[in-house]
Each structure stands twice: as structure tokens, then as C-alpha cells.
From TrEMBL:
Residues 137-161 are annotated as: Disordered. GO terms for cellular component: cytosolic large ribosomal subunit. The keyword rRNA-binding applies. Belongs to the universal ribosomal protein uL3 family. The keyword Ribonucleoprotein applies. This is Large ribosomal subunit protein uL3. The lineage of its organism: Bacteria, Bacillati, Chloroflexota, Chloroflexia, Candidatus Chloroheliales. InterPro entries: Ribosomal_uL3 (IPR000597), Ribosomal_uL3_bac/org-type (IPR019927), Ribosomal_uL3_CS (IPR019926), Transl_B-barrel_sf (IPR009000). Keywords: Ribonucleoprotein, Ribosomal protein, RNA-binding, rRNA-binding.
Length: 221
């Protein structure tokens, strides 16, 4: 099977275990995804499976070009201009690459309950933020005449040498809307009939955001 699947964050809720304890979970619409293309060693120099998620009627030509084989297989009677999958990603496969073919459907059953997974998404955008909120600075001194420096960043560089602000300096700016991965989250429950996965805890991003769920790279014991 493949090591990852695409999904959509639906929101958070809680369920109760056999002991009556409340467990906070995130509900994810995990697939169904379809195999769009196969990357082989002979053709591409590496092996991977390209999967697609969420049908859309508004695709650009490059997106449609990636799916021409899938559209040829499944597009009988459907206009190629109004059909396709919106999100495309390449994932690793544990089985031999010859076991997969374009059009195969992949669901949440690639995971098991109580398995650890890594979840990648785009964090919520928080707009412009200062250094205390964005980088956890503690601010300037509160005494000795520093009446207007309580939330200031302080010095951002030297004078003549190098005579500029070096790249990567932590300063105020746009906060959030970054690619974030949370590791070792537990799969609490899998609903294959409705393509749902319940993951313990919070995952990055807002409701409706795209998620990549993969088997944990460094699972903890």
C-alpha cells in the first residue's frame, strides 16, 4: 500500500473510550484518492505513486495534463474540461510499483487504528504580528527611561560591518500560513464506509484545509 493519503480537515469533536474518558479528535475526510500516474525508475529515475483528491470542474491545463491517462480511462461520456482532481501529490509505496495502475482507488484503510501518523497542513494565517507574538521575544527593559520599548525587537544588526540587516533576522512580519507537520498523532478510529479518519489531538490548518497524512517517519514507542 501507499504510505500516505490526502484528506480534508472537517473539524474537531470528542469521543468516549471504554473507560468513559473523553478523547479530543480531529475528523478528517481521508480520500477516496485515485492513482493519477506512476513514477518508475526507468522513466523518471525514481519510484512513486501520484494520487489525486477532490473532484473539481475548474482545472488548469497543467493539472489536466497530469491526469490525461485517468481522464481517458474514466472520462467516457464526461467532458475533459469539467472533470478532474484538484489536489495532486506524490507518495511513496511499500509494494512493488508494478502493483499499482492508474485509476486505482485508495481509502483510509491504508492505516490501522492506534497507528501513529504524521499530518502535514497549512497553518492558519494570523496577519502581521510583532516579534513578541511571532518569535516569542520577551521585549525590552521596563525601566531606565525605556518607556516605548516594551514590545520592540531591540538591535537588528551592527553598523559599518556588515552595514546591513542579515538575511533571516527575526523581525515583525506575516505570521502563520506556513507548511506545518505534526508528528506521531494516533489514529483513534477509521470509518472506511464514509472515508473518515479520527486522529487524536489537533492538526494544522483551518476547517476545509488540505492535509497529507502519512505513516509516522519516527514513531515513538
Amino acid at each position: 500500500m501507499v504510505n500516505a493519503i490526502l484528506g480534508k480537515k472537517l473539524g474537531m469533536t470528542q469521543i468516549f473510550n471504554e473507560k468513559g474518558e473523553a478523547i479530543p479528535v480531529t475528523v478528517v475526510q481521508a480520500g477516496p484518492c485515485k492513482v493519477v500516474d506512476i513514477r518508475t525508475q526507468d522513466k523518471n529515475g525514481y519510484e512513486a505513486v501520484q494520487i489525486g483528491f477532490e473532484e473539481s470542474a475548474r482545472l488548469k491545463k497543467p493539472q489536466r495534463g497530469h491526469q490525461k491517462e485517468l481522464l481517458r480511462i474514466e472520462g467516457e461520456g464526461i467532458s475533459a474540461k469539467t472533470y478532474g482532481l484538484k489536489f495532486l501529490r506524490e507518495v511513496e509505496a511499500t509494494n512493488p510499483i508494478a502493483d499499482y495502475k492508474v485509476g486505482d482507488e485508495i481509502g483510509p484503510d491504508v492505516f490501522k487504528e492506534n497507528e501513529l501518523v504524521d499530518v502535514t497542513g497549512t497553518s492558519k494565517g494570523k496577519g502581521f504580528a510583532g516579534v513578541m507574538k511571532r518569535h516569542n521575544f520577551h521585549g525590552g527593559p521596563k525601566t531606565h527611561g525605556q518607556s516605548d520599548r516594551r514590545r520592540a525587537p531591540g538591535s537588528i544588526g551592527a553598523g559599518t560591518t556588515p552595514g546591513r540587516v542579515v538575511k533571516g533576522m527575526r523581525m515583525a512580519g506575516h505570521m502563520g500560513q506556513d507548511r506545518v507537520t505534526v508528528h506521531n498523532l494516533k489514529v483513534v478510529k477509521i470509518d472506511t464506509e464514509n472515508s473518515l479518519i479520527l486522529i487524536r489531538g489537533a492538526v494544522p490548518g483551518a476547517d476545509g484545509g488540505l492535509l497529507v497524512i502519512r505513516k509516522a517517519v519516527k514513531p515513538v514507542k
